Structures are given as C-alpha cells and as structure tokens.
Give the backbone structure.
Amino acid sequence: MRLTKLKLAGFKSFVDPTSVAVPGQLVGVVGPNGCGKSNIMDAVRWVLGESKASELRGESMMDVIFNGSSNRKPVSRASVELIFENLLGRALGQWSQYTELSVKRTLTRQGQSDYFINNLKVRRKDITDLFLGTGLGPRAYAIIGQGMISRIIEARPDDLRVFLEEAAGVTRYKERRKETNGRLEDTRENLLRVEDIRQELGNQMERLEAQAEVARRYQGLNEQLVLRQQVLWLLKKREAEAERQKLSLDVERATTELEAQNAALRETEARAEETREAHFAAGDALHNAQSDMYTANAEVARLEAEIRHRRESRSQLEARLTQLEDELKHWGETAEKLTVDRQKWEETQEITKLRVEEAEAKLHEQMNIAPQVEEDHAQAQEELQRLKTRSTNGEQKLEVELTNKSHAQRALQAIIQRRERLREETGGNDAPDEMDLAEKEEELALLREELAGDQDQLQQLQQEMPQLEAQRKEAQTEVQRIERELAAGQARRAALEQMQARTQQSGKLPEWLRRHDLDSAPPLWQKIHVEAGWEEAVEAVLRERLSAIACDDPAKLDAWLHDRPEARLSVVLPGDFNFGQNFRLTVEVLSSRVRSDSPAVQAVLNDWLGQVRTAETLADALAVRADLPPGAVIVTRGGDLVSAASVTFFAPDQGEHGLLERQREIETLGEGIAVAEEKADAIREQLVMFDEQVEDKQAEMGEIRQYVADRQQRVHAVQMDVLKLSQAIERHREQKERLQEQLAELAEEEESERERDMSADERIAEIRDGLGRIRVLVHGAQTRLDECERAVRAERERNSDFDRALREAQFSLRECDGKLQDVFAQQAMAQRELNRIEKDRAQCAEQVEAAPPDVMEGALQAALEARQAAEKVLAEKRDALEAATNALRGFEEQRLRIEQGLEPLRVRIGDLKLKEQAAALNAEQFAMQLLEAGANEEALQAELGTARPPALQGEITRLTNAIAELGAVNMAALQELETATERKGYLDMQAADLNEAMETLENAIRRIDRETRDLLQSTFDTVNGHFGQLFPELFGGGRAELVMTGDEILDAGVQVIAQPPGKKNSTIHLLSGGEKALTAIALVFSMFQLNPAPFCLLDEVDAPLDDSNTERFCKMVKKMSGATQFLFISHNKIAMEMAEQLVGVTMQESGVSRVVEVDIQEALKMRDAA
C-alpha cells in the first residue's frame, strides 16, 4: 500500500478542508515554527486509532477539534482521511480486493467518534487489524514524532520488545492469543457454572425420585378408584335404564288407547271438514255475487263521471282556443320589434369598426417613441445602483470594523470580569471536608449489613410460602370434592321430592282436597318412619292408606258424605285407642317396625297394623299360618301377605310404589347433605384461615420487600454521596490548577484584544473618509434618475391613454356583435312560438268538434238495470251460506265433546312420561358422569360380574382412605424428574463439549506461542544483523547490537548496545543527543529493512544532527525510499534538498494553517526551460 493523499477538515489548526497530495516516495513538509506542521503527524496518528490525548499533545480528545481563533468561530466536527493505493492487494482480509482504500475518522463535540473504511462504518479494531504487522499504528515505529527518537533509544527493554514484535509482524499473533486466552477463561467459567448446576441438579433429582414414587402409588390407587367409581355408575345406569323401559311400555299402552279416541276425533273432524268445504263454497258464491254487485255499481259511477268529464273538457278547450289567439297576436308584434332592433345594431357595428382602426394606428405610433426613454432611465438606474453598492460595501465594512471594535471592547470587558471572577473563585472555593467522606463510608457499611439481614428474612418467608400454598390448594380440592358430592345429593333429593310431589298431585283427589282445605295436610307416608328393609311390607298392607290424611275435626265427615272424594281416601281421626294383643304367636307385629311422632298417626298405625305379623321369608310365614286367628295376616319382607286360608303375592302399585323407600332416601340424603355442609363449612373456615395466613405472609413479604427496596435506595443514595464527595475533592484539586492556568491565559488574551481594538480604530477612520466621497456621487446620480423617471412616467401615461381608447373601441365592437347575436336568437324563438301556437289552435278545434255531450246517456241506463239484477242474486247466496254455517256448528260441538274426554287420558300419559323421564334422568346423569370421566363401557362390562352397589361403594371408600393416607402428593414430580433427567443429560454433554473446547484452546495457545517464539527469534537475529550493518554506515564506524535481557524470548526485554567510533561507553545513556538520534534511526531503519511499512513519518528527526550526519541520514533515507514512502518534517536545508515534493505549511491567518505544494522535479524542469 502507498499513501497518495491526506485530507483534513476541522482538525486542530486545519479548520478549512485541506488536501495534502503525496505523489512521490520522498515528500518534505516545511514551514516556520508553530505553523501546524506537526499537526499533520498528529492527524495520521489520530486516524490510525490513537485514543490517548497526551500522545496528540492535548488534554482531552476534544482538543483535536478546531477551537476557534481571533477571526474564526469554533467548529463542531473534525475529520481526517487517508487514501492509499492498493494495486498489489497488500491489505488484509476483505479489503485486499480494492485497488484504493480510504481510512477515515470523524469526531464531534458530543463525543461521537466514528471510523470508516471506503465510507463503510467500522470499529476501531477493524482499523487496527487492517495495519497489523505493517509497522503502522498510533504508536508504531513507522511514525516517529518530535522527541520520540530519544524515547526509543532510552526506552525500557520491555518497550523496545514491542517495536521488535511489530517488525516481526507477531502483533496479530498476540491479538489472536489474547482473544483465545479470553475465550479459554470464559470456557473455564462456563465449565464451573455447569458443574455447579450438575451438582445442584443431582440433589434435586434425589428428592424428586422419592416424590415421584409417591406420585406413582397415587396414580395406581387413583386408577383403581376411578375404575370402581365408573363400574358403580354403569351399574346404576343399567338399573335406571331398565326402569325406564318398563315405564316406556306403560306409556305405549296408554298411548294406544289415546290413539283410538283420536281416530274417533279425526272421523268427526273429517265430516266437519266436508261441511266446512260446503260452507266455503257458499261463501265463495256469496263473494262472487258481491263482486258482481260491486262491478255494476262501479260501472254506473264510471259512466256518470265520464259524462261530467266530457262536459268539463269541452269548456276547457274553448277557453284554450281564446288563449292561443291572444298569444299569436303577442308573438307577431314581438317579431316586428326585433326586425327594427337588428337594423339599429348593424349600423352601430359599422361605426365602431372605424373607431377601432383609428385607435390602433395611434397606439402603434406611440410605441415607437417609448423605448429610447426607457433605455435612458435604465442607464441612470444602473449608475445609481453601482454607486449605492459601493456605498453599501463601505458601510458594511464600517459596520464590520465597528462590530470588531465592539467585540474587542466586550472581549476586554469579559476578560477583566472573568479574571476577577477567577480570582474570587480561587479565594472563595473551599475544599470539601474529607471527614464527611469517612462518615458516609461508615454509614454505607452499616446499611449494607441491614440490607443483608432483610434479604435473609425475605428468603426465609419465600421458602415458607410453598408449604402454605400446598395446604391451601389441598383444602380447595377437598371443598370442591364435597361441593360436587353436595350437588349430586341435592340433585338426587330434588328429583325424588319431585317424584313424590307428582305422585301426591296425580288423579282427581287433589282438586277435592283443595275444595275442603285439605291440600296442605301432609299424607301419612310423610309422618311415619319404617325400619329399613320393611318398606315393601308396609306398602303391601297399607296400600292406598299410605296417602291417608289427618282430620282434627270429626264433624267434617258429615259434610263429606254429600261431597264424597272422587278417589279412594283414608282419613286419620283423633282419639285414644288401646288395641289388645290376643295372639298366641310370638311373631313380631308390623306396627313395631313403624313409628310416627304424631300420637294420632301412631294410634291409626296400631289399628291398621296391630293384626299384621312379620316374617322374613314366605316359607317362614307359611310355617306359622295355621296358628293365625281369624282376620290376622302375616307379611313378609318382600310384601307377600299370608292369612290362615290364603296367600297374596305382592306386586307394586303404580301410584304408591316406592313412596316409603324414596322418603327414606330423601331423609338419608338430607342428613348426608347436612353433614357434608357442616364438613364443607369447616374446611371453608380452614381455607379462609390458610388464605389469611398466605395474605399475612404476602403482606409481610411486601413490607420486607419495601424495606429492602428502601435500603437499596438508601445504599444507592449513600454510594452516590460517597462518589460525589470523592469526585468533589478531586474536582477541587483539578479546578485549582485549572484556575491558575486560566489566569495566565487571560493575561495574554487581554494584550491581544487591546492591539485588535487600536487597529480597528484606524480602519474605521479610513472607511468613513471613503464613504463621504461616495455619498456625493450618489446624490448626483439620484438627481439624474429622478429626471429620467419623470420622462418615463409621461410616456407611460400617453401609452396608457392610447391603449385605453383602443380597449374601449374594441369593447364597443364586441358589444355590438353580442347584441346582434341576441336579436337573431330572439327572432328564431318568436318564429318557433308562432308555429307552435298555430298547431295547438288546430288541435283544440278538432277536439271540440269530436266530443258531443249526449252520447253516454244510453249506456248509463243499461248499467242501472244490470245493478238491480245483481242485488237479487246476492240475496239468494246469503241464505245458502247461513244454512251451511248451522251444519258446521253441529259438527264442531261434537268434536269438542270428544276432545274433552281425551284430557284425563293425556294426563295419565303425562304422569307416566314424567316417571319415565325421571328414570331417564337418572340414567342420563350416570351416563354423563361416565362420559365426563372418559369411561369405555365395553371395557367396564368385563368388570361388572356379580358386583353390587354396596360392595362397590365399600371398595371406593377403602381406596379413598388409602389415597388420603398418602398425604400431599406432588404430581408434577414425574414430569419434573423427566425434565431434570433430560437436562442432566444435556449438561453432561455440555460439560464434555466444554472440556474438549478447553483442550482445543490450550493447544491453540501452545501452537501460537511456538510460532510466535520462532518468528520473533528469527526477526531478532535479522534486525540485529541489519542494526550491526547500518550503525557503522551512519557513524562511519563503531559497532552496535541488540541483547535479550531474559531466557524466554516471549517476555524478555531488548537492550541496545552502541559504541560509536573511538568510544568504549558501557551504556546507551552516555551518548550525546546526536549519537542517540543516529542510533535510534539505525534501529528503526533496521526494522524497516525486515518489514517495510507502507510509509514512514519523520517529525524533525534530523534536528539534533550536524551537517555531516544529516548527509549520511539523507543518503540512507534515499536508499530506503525505494521500498518505503517517506513523509518528513524538517528545518534543515540538506534534508529539504532530498525531497521530490515539498509541502509548505503557512499560517497567514492567526490560528489557521494552509498548505502550499511544490513539485521539485517540475520546478527544475521549468527552470531549465527558462
């Protein structure tokens, strides 16, 4: 790569965009001291990535941006760009494909620093990587600034090794080793974290194994429980379906009877329908007769209206003829008037045309005179404008100078005020108390201890929360289970109570009970309590007496004799009864198995059941029947009745069957519901307690979190106070030093501003003299311009008069044309109206002759006769319709009687269907439970066997207790264990990968060290050889060498041994300044011979050299310029002579550098040509 151009803008003293061309291999930069030559070297170092302000001779990076001068404002942005020629593709990486490379850096006052390569935004590291191993860089050996020569030769051995590494090109290896080592450290940290996670995960898996075992046992028991529950539901579903099928047969029989009645009803309806059709036919005939009547009436009315219309139309036509005669007269007069108007406007048009021609001729004559006057006016105006411009420029210069003087005076005043303010700040700025800083640090330590205690307490509460949440969840689950059981029990009880109510309300008896105010009296079956298992026995004995009601007043029986019940009814009368026991049998009586809380009911039960004995089976009853007295019977548990001479087998009564059993189930369900509600209330109270505990814990955690947040805020605040105090102490020290420097700068600025004020006064006086002379010339030019303007206005007024006369004549001509067009249009319209009126008058005359008024009288008389005949037919049709209506009414009454007989039959069918629906509801309820549980009924069929509901219920209870004994079960443990196992496998693979990666990185570091060691050793030997050759060449004798200060070349330092001719010095520090400079140059050029940089910058390197040494230095530079491009700054004429191009830097404007380029070869050619 070769540097071809350097562009600067806003960088230090190069405020204007400046381009420095570097066309040759030897380019010298010359100029007086302080003109900004070294700023070019700083610009190159800065664009290559220098980030230390002191290396750029500044206090901060903002100092590289032009900060203003006496005549310039500060700029907000600095930019430096290097342009390289890359024809050989020596650039590294992706940039090798470009034949030209642009490296650019920009910086704004907001601190935004950006790097660009070929206008693509890149990182600073990308710039560094581009020049790795080339000797170029912000502090590489290819850029040698002022004083750097002495620093190189006097540098520590470790610093010299850096230059040697750059020459060897191992900086890229060191960068790779640094990155690899960083990745190795990251891999080790990742491996430690993975090992910690694996250990913690192992402990977690041991705990999850135990929980998973409990979860598996729970799943097994729960599966058995679900199976038993589903089998129970299936069994109850089958029983309910059997009951429904039986009721369905009863419904079918009742439906058959209902259909027979419906057949009779349909026959009656068919005969009624035939009669109705006859009725409809009579109605249609009546409707037709009415239509004929309406038609006749309408015809009479139409003819009468037509006669009236004809008479009115004739009158209107005669009036229209009169109107048309008047209009014809009017339009004839209008046509005559328009002919006269057309003649008048045609004459006016001819006169106006002559006026237009005359006005156009006058205007043309005037237009030939005006241009000369306008030209004179323009010349006078131009002269005045030129003089005014000179006056304005002078006034602007005067204003500028006055402004400069004002600025200088304000600057002086500001400098004086600023100096006083700085003196006040120096005296009144007290240093911060360091004792406050110590107190704040103690307070910070105490707050951190308190914060740690609060965090420990918060962690303990967070560990307690899961147990409380588990207890609350368990209580919620139990409440939900009990509520489901309650809902099922309540639904079952409601269905049973509904069936009991339907049984009580069926038949004709409820109406009779309501008439006698007995509908609220409870039936007997609601007042008795039967021993379990003997319900059917009691039903067999009492039968319809189960629905008996209690009567408190026996006198009511007399009234009932006149209004007997419509169904069988038993009444319990009040009184005390004593029924004796005269039987020899020892069999227990049925009344002992039935009890009632009502004494009257209990007495009746003793009366009805006192003669009824009980036996478990029919065989037991038959065995003792011979001992029965007359009238006594024995009832078995199944309801069979045995007397001394007969056996009556029990069959359930359709109405009263199941009353007692359902009543017992209702009572049992009520007791169970009450117990379940009490249990649910207790668990709800426990759940409320858990909720309160959780809320208390959460509130306490919230308070502690608030305490922690407050502590953290306080810690942060105290930390900020400590930081502010520390910074304040440091700022006070820096501010004190800065104030002293600013006071010295203000003194210099005050002197400069006073000189600027005096020079401004001189320029103001000179400008004012020139302005006086210009104002006299402006007055004369203004007078001439005023005369020209008056002449121009006069000519323009005459032009305006002639133009106005022409426009008026043209307007009059257009007016005449318009008026003539209007007259022509009106004449055409008048002719059209005359033609139209003649046509309308002829049509009206024809219509009057074609409409005689007496034509329609005969037709009206015929229509009146037709209407009379229609009225007679209408009367006959009305009589026929009335006869059909009477016949239809008789059939409707017969249909109503049949329908009334169907109602009791429908009620019976409805009752049967309700019972069927109740059974279907039970079956559907169990089927729904099976469906919700996702049960497979075919699979459950194999589990039925001989199972019975009580045995299944006991098994369900046993399984429920076994599940309860397991306690709290973590059902997520199985999934968590699987996840943890999978994660552990992943972590094991990750650990193996990390170990493998560590081994790979360590091998890479060893390989990099080996390659670097070999390359550095060979470079050291080569540079040492070159150094030994160049040193005698520059000094004219002597010897020099490089020596390693350690055994390991990777971290050993490099020491310079140099002995000029005739000297035996033992250390480099004993050399003179010029000898040190030559030694450093020899060392740098030795490195260049090994790894030539694209270009080399030398900033006054030859300053300490005498003429003979300078000549040898220049000779060596010329020799090396074949491989390296040199850009050097020098005040030495001998050095200037070797340059192919000279770049001059001047500072004609204070604080602003400019560049002047001179091609020496081209200058010599021009001299020779002259």
